[in-house]
Amino acid sequence: MIKVAHIGVGISGQEGMQAVLSSDFSFAQFRYLQRLLLVHGRWSYIRMCKFLGYFFYKNFTFTLVQFWYAFFCGFSAQTVYEDWFITFYNMVYTALPVLGMCLFDQDVNDRWSLYHPQLYAPGQKNQYFNKKAFVSYLIHGCYCSLIIFFIPWASMNDAVRNDGKDIVSHPSFAFLLQTCLLIVVHTQLSLDTYYWTAVNHFFVWLSTIGYFAISVTMYSNGMFYVFPSSFPLFGAARNTLNQPNVWLTIFLTFLLCILPVVAFRFIFIQLRPTINDKVRYKMRTEELTAPAPRRLLRRRSTRSGYAFSHSQGYGDLVTSRKFLIKRPLKMTALFTQTDSSIFQNQPQHYRTIAEEPQSP
Amino acid sequence: MMASSYSAKDEDGHITVSGPGGGTLRNKKPENTAFKQQRLPAWQPILTAGTVLPAFFIIGLIFIPIGIGLYVTSNNIKEFEIDYTGDDTSSPCYNCAKNFSWNNTKSCTCTIPFQLDQPYESNVFMYYGLSNFYQNHRRYVKSRDDSQLNGNIDSLKKPSKECEPYASIDNKPIAPCGAIANSMFNDTLTLFYNDPNGTSVPIPLTSTGIAWWTDKHVKFRNPVGTNSNLTAVFQGTVKPVNWHRPVYELDTDPENNGFINEDFIVWMRTAALPTFRKLYRIIQKKNTMAPTLPRGNYTLVVDYNYPVRSFEGRKRMILSTISWMGGKNPFLGIAYITVGSVCFFLGVVLLVIHHKYGNRNNSANISN
Description:
A: mainly alpha; two-stranded parallel sheet; B: 2 domains; 12 strands; 18% strand
């Protein structure tokens, strides 16, 4: 009796619904198992790992900046960000893009997932979220937080606006750091998202522009008149954002955080491409050259092995001899049939999943 | 009875229910839309050499000129700094610093001569700088009442709890309340130019236009009373403990008196770092072609009222010109040049790597 498993799958059928009721997933035919695992299970694993990793990264970055600031504020627990930003950061500014990535992300589409079952191996080996991955997210967050704090710190040290007035006041410095942080975090999400649907675009742009819109509104005259004590950072946005050296600092911070990530990923793709990288590359080049695939009409399987005594049965089909006609395969070998090999009464044959050799 | 309402599930998972009346369909199959079947049209970017390498080179090529521009601009800004803390016996302000006492009625004056090697053109900005002064300490930052400073009469008479213990003395409210206001910088700095004849010419210093426009006109307001006289409006309040004069006597100019005094506003804008500078005065440029501050000998006269030695702080006066990027700060220029060069070098390295090893990605042999 199986006592330990990752998921339980029940087949619903004429034997009763007991398996269905006690399982995580249930469907009617065994052939759906292939799609469940290789397509949906794999996507689910990837989305979950990306979500977790990104969440840890963005919160490490956010919190460690406060930690570095502690060295400069007498360890008095003064927040470097403004209070409303801290409230809104996880709930408003970074909630939707992550949700979009988690709902829609696909690294390869379903056809390719079925064609290359080796893509399923990382999930079995727990490769995308383990202790090593967690430490790498921590280090990445630490590095980004150092950049996000110390570059503006060095740039704003004894700095003034271009009309001589103050710019290193606490509200302006906070606003600068907030803006740097949000731009870096959103761009990191953009690098992590492999499948940009319209919804993803909408969420990311909405969050970024929403941040600026909300900040400008919060720091405007209206809010200040109504709640002077709650919005004391009045005037910070407009007096900070019209300074070229602020924008130059933001740009520098953003690039210093993002370029190493891009460089690392590129180097790994060149030196040690994983199966994922290869398939994605192949998918991209094939999509550019292959014609649009003909959609297979879903038709009732005429080769069912099940015998139903309550419905009419397949006597007409058998006597019509339709199933003896061999239908030639029109598609290229690249896009193999999506029906399972039960269709051809062949035993289900998977490629063996083995570790890729390190050297070519 | 049962036979009339069975649900037959065919091979596609399509459940059809025939009710007693016959012909009602209940379809449990999810809709075959692009959204629900995860087939939405999407952009699927991958990091290819064709995008990454040009990006690195372009960034490198853009950053280096920007960095050079910033560095040259910063170098052209002229800045002069005098530390007048007076902790050293050779410093002119040593006696003032040593003999400081809170009960001094007469302020101590010290005179520091200095020399400008280059003429300063256009507007020259005079700052005072403090070091080791933690205006960003949490309890300090909280210790203010923004509605009182906005001219709210109720808050004037009853300052908020955040201002404690600088909210009231002997049941009389302090205006302005809080630790930030209480520790306002009150040194007076004046400049004199010693022209070649030997006469000491005072340099005119403008004390307005030093605070943010939004602060001066919106955030800080004097309370409005029946009487336009500020002294009457502030009746019933006392000055902060460490101030020499009450808030309605900060300046003779009524536009710069009370809460809207610009020195006060500048001080209330708390700095984010322990070493900071705040704008003190502006030396306006002259209408003639002569430089604002010609080369030569100058004298700084300090009314030493502000004690910093107890927390090992330092005080300094800074004269600086301004450019489109603000004050003198070579960091951005150097950072841009460095990042640009590193980026360009990294682009070359990545190009080499791609050239040598890039074929691994193209291998059609996706291993079994």
